[in-house]
Amino acid sequence: MPTLHRMALFLFATLCVLCGQSTAAGAKRPPNFIVILADDLGAKELSCYGSKLHQTPQLDRMAAEGTRFETFFATPLCTPTRVQLMTGQYGFRTGYLGMNNKAFIPAPGSPETDIGSRFTFADLLKSRGYATALSGKWQLSGKLPTLIRDAGFDEYRMWAYEHNLPPGVKHPGREPNNGQHSRYWHPSIVENGKHLPTTPADFGPDLFNDFVIDFARRHREQPFFIYYPSVLTHGPRVETPDPTKPGARWPAGLKSNLEYLDHLTGKLLAALKADGFASNTYVFFIGDNGTAGDGKATPTELGARVPGIMWGADVKRGVVSRAVADLTDIMATLADLSGATLPKDRVFDGRSFAPVLRGTQPRHRDWIYSHLDDGRVLRDERWLLEIPFGNKGGKLFDCGTSRDGTGYRDVTDSNEPDAEAARERFTAVLAKMPEPKPRVLTPDEAKPKKQ
Q1: How confident is the model over 66-95, as pLDDT tens digits?
Q2: Fold for domain 3-12+30-368?
Q3: Which stretch of DSSP H or E encloses residue 317?
C-alpha cells in the first residue's frame, strides 16, 4: 500500500482505538470473527440446502445452531467476489466487474489493481484493536515482503503461486492437469513471508485449518478476526484424507472434497467450543460463487447463490431466514457487531444484517445484486431478474416462495400487474448504478496470446 495512504489508515485506526479506550470501564470486549469463504460451492450442494447427493452434518449442525440465509449472493467468479467481500463495494466501484475478460478488470499496473491500497474489512477491525489473520487462498495483488499485510492482516498462511514464493525458493509439488503449485497434497505455502516446507503426506486444507485454530488460541486475550478463504472445493478435486481411517483416503470428486470441508468446519467449531470462544465469536460460512460446471461463471442466480450460514455469539439459533443478503453486507455487519466506524470518504454498498442474526427483525434488504462482466442479476424476496452477457434483454422470473430455482415462472413478457410493477422497480434500481461496459484495451492487452 502507498506509504501516505497506509499512514492515513494507521492514524484512523489509532484514533478509533483511543476512542474505544475512552469508553466506560468494564465495557464488554468486542466479539471475535471468523469468515470462512468456500471455493466454488453453490448453496445447493449442502444437505441443509436440500442436496441429496452430499452429506454435510457439521454444516447442517452449524445451521441448526445458528441462522441460515436461504438466499445469499456472491458474484459468479472468484476474484470479483474476493474484492467485493473485502471492500464492501460492488464491482462498478472497484473496477473488478469480472475476472477472465480483460475488459472488465482494472488495467494492469493501474492503482485499482492494488488491493492493498483499498480499505478492507481487516483495516476496519484493526481500527478496533483486533488481531487479524488470513489463512488459505489469496489470489489477489501484492508482493513480498508486504504481501497480504498491505491489506490489513497481521499474519497469514497462504497457498502460494510460483510468483508468491520468496526469491530462490522452488517448490516441487504440482497440481495435476493445470501445473500450478499444489494447494492440496504437498502444498505450496508461504507463512508470514517465509516458505513453509511441506511433504507429499501433508494436505493443505488441514494446514490452513490448523493455522486458524492456532491463531485464535494465541490471541485469546484480544479480539481477533480471521479471514479463512478455503482452497476446497476448487478443482482439481483430488483424493482427501479419510477422517475415520488414518492413512486412508476418500476418492476424488466434489462429494469427498465438500464432505472433507464439512469435516474441517466441524473440527474448527469444536475447537472454538472447547476453548470457550463460542459465546463471543461469530463464524460466517459463505461461498465465492456457484459450483464449477453448474452455475459458476454465469450471470444467473445459480452462479450467484452461495451458502450463507452464521453461527456463534448471540446469533439466534435454528433460524432459516427469508431475508435476502449479499457479500457487500459483510463489511457493514462486521462494523455493526464490532462497534467499528466505517470511513465517511467512500460509499459502502451493504447493510448490516445483525438485526436478522439477533432475531429482532425478519427482513433485511429490498434487493440484492450480483454481476459478471456486463451480465447482471437482481433479486428480491419474490422476483428475479437475470441479464445475460452483452447487457441486453434479460429474463424476469416470479419465484413465488421458492428460493432454489424450482417452480420459477418466466414472466418476461407478462403484462400481469405484479410483474409489471416488479419490472419497474428493478429498472429503477439498475438506473441508479453505472451500466457495466468494457474498457478499451491497450494495444499490448489486445494482442492475441501466443499458442
Answers
A1: 999 999 999 999 999 999 999 999 999 999
A2: Alkaline Phosphatase, subunit A (3.40.720)
A3: none
